[in-house]
Design goal:
It comes from Stieleria magnilauensis. By secondary structure, the protein is α+β, with helices and mostly antiparallel strands. It has helices spanning about 5-15, 75-90, 140-150, 175-190, 205-210, 250, 270-275; strands spanning about 65-70, 110-120, 120-130, 155-165, 195-200, 215, 220, 230-235.
Length: about 290
């Protein structure tokens, strides 16, 4: 058995026996679980059984990262530096002189940046873009798919820019859960009923197993991650059956406090500071090749 198979088996034991081990995400594959993801064929969402006594699980032993909404320039800068370092290491973007990865949507008022903290450090980040102004970053590649979701739901939002600082840890399932659970709780409190994301094909399964995401379009090259393949996925915010039983307390319980993820906005000072570093605003690099 190779190293990759052993890692997959280990993760399979952690997640439970809901799917074959080959469907799990390895530690290497999770280096950037977000823009760099996707899959092939849409499948029906399996109904997740109710949690049983045998599945009772105390995730506090594994979950080091605690997620907050970014509220200071230091939070935002740490997030953009973490995103930069993680993506550069994974080969998803070129290094920048600033050492930050700031995309135009990070500066939108409808974007909420999240800061993951552990050991008194800012070590992870994730962004959630609310579709309050009928614009989402993934529309540059998946316009038709986003429009279909928008027409079917009250309010959609897009998860993006998940990263963990390379000098802290390899991204792990618990990091993904800790960060996305905070974003999901935040989205629910903002009235969102539909979550979207773009992911690499080999990572769709982990999003489906944890949060019930389903593929809603075909694979396409994504200019935002050096032309790597990406696929659009969507998940309901309020469907408790879609969430893996082991993580119900995170996505629907009280592990995320409302004050922890209260909405915050980038200040005008922050906008002026980060705007010169925003990349890809005018060059059309996120559009699907015709």
């Amino acid at each position: 058995m190779g190293k990759a198979e052993r890692l997959e088996r280990r993760l399979e034991r952690r997640l439970g026996a809901m799917a074959p081990a080959s469907q799990a995400m390895t530690a290497e594959e999770t280096q950037v679980v977000d823009d760099e993801e996707a899959s092939g064929v849409r499948v029906d969402r399996p109904l997740v059984p109710a949690m049983t006594a045998a599945e009772t699980w105390n995730p506090s032993e594994l979950f080091q990262v605690k997620c907050f909404t970014a509220r200071s320039l230091q939070d935002y800068e740490a997030a953009f530096r973490t995103l930069h370092d993680s993506y550069v290491r994974a080969g998803l973007c070129d290094p920048t002189a600033s050492g930050m990865r700031v995309l135009p949507f990070h500066l939108w008022r409808e974007t909420q940046v999240f800061s993951g903290r552990a050991d008194h450090r800012r070590v992870a980040t994730l962004s959630l873009v609310l579709d309050e102004n009928n614009r989402l970053p993934m529309e540059e590649v998946f316009e038709e798919e986003v429009q279909r979701e928008r027409e079917r739901h009250e309010l959609t939002a897009e998860l993006s820019s998940f990263a963990v600082a390379p000098d802290f840890s390899q991204p792990r399932t618990e990091h993904l859960v800790a960060m996305t659970a905070a974003a999901v709780q935040f989205a629910r409190w903002q009235g969102v009923d539909d979550l979207l994301a773009t992911v690499h094909p080999k990572h769709v399964r982990i999003y489906r197993r944890i949060m019930g995401f389903q593929q809603i379009g075909e694979v396409a090259p994504h200019g935002g991650v050096m032309g790597r393949p990406a696929v659009p996925i969507a998940a309901p915010v309020n469907d408790i059956q879609a969430v893996h039983p082991r993580f119900l307390q995170w996505y629907f319980g009280n592990r995320i406090l409302k004050e922890q993820v209260r909405r915050s906005y980038l200040s005008e000072q922050g906008y002026r500071y980060f705007r010169p570093f925003a990349i890809g605003a005018e060059d059309g690099r996120y559009r699907r090749p015709r």
